[in-house]
Amino acid sequence: MKILIDMNLSPDWVKVFEKYDIEAVHWSSVGDPREKDRVIMEWARAKGYIVLTHDLDFGSLLAATGVETPSVIQVRTQDILPNSIENLVISALRQFEEELMQGALVTVDKAQSRARILPIRQ
């Protein structure tokens, strides 16, 4: 499993994933920080990464385009710092690992995590 961390999340997430032997990169280390979400999604798809984001636009892009990859994990909490939600995110990764490998939109919040299999049909 490989995780691409979106610009709206701290680069500190890379270290969190390393603790769990999960390959992770922050977008700022591989691409232009001002790049459009579509470009980030295409990069993740081409390289086999799952996108971790706090941006709801990624889910909208999945719905609008009807693609089957890349998988996206949306964090839907106010506090998005790793020390606050590390356990939530790692738990969701474990719970939905199979779905994420096939193509899914996983939403993580304090109450629950849920997965929607891709493509999202309207």
Walk me through this protein's architecture.
The chain is α/β, with parallel strands linked by helices. It has one domain: Rossmann fold (3-Layer(aba) Sandwich). The chain has five helices and six strands, in the order E-H-E-H-E-H-E-H-H-E-E. A six-stranded mixed β-sheet has the order 2-1-3-4-5-6, with helices on both faces. Helix 1 (13-19) links the parallel strand 1 (2-5) and strand 2 (23-26). The protein starts with a strand and ends in a 5-residue tail after the last strand.
Task: Summarize the model shown.
With 122 residues, the chain is of the alpha/beta class. Helices cover 39% and strands 21% of the residues. It has one domain (2-117): Rossmann fold, CATH 3.40.50.
Helix content: 25-40%
In whole angstroms, the N-to-C terminal distance is 28 Å
Main sheet: strands, sense, barrel: 6 strands, mixed
Supply the CATH class: Alpha Beta
Sum up the overall morphology in one term: globular
CA gyration radius, whole angstroms: 13 Å
Report strand %: 15-25%
Walk across the major sheet and give the strand order: 2-1-3-4-5-6
Q: Which residue ranges are poorly predicted, with pLDDT under 50 across at least 5 consecutive positions?
A: none
Question: How many individual helices?
Answer: 5
Q: Could you say what the CATH architecture is? A: 3-Layer(aba) Sandwich
Structural class given helices, strands, pairing? alpha/beta
Examine the coordinates and then state which fold CATH places here, giving the name of the CATH topology. Rossmann fold
H-E order: EHEHEHEHHEE
Q: How many domains is the backbone divided into?
A: 1
The average pLDDT value, as a whole number, equals 96
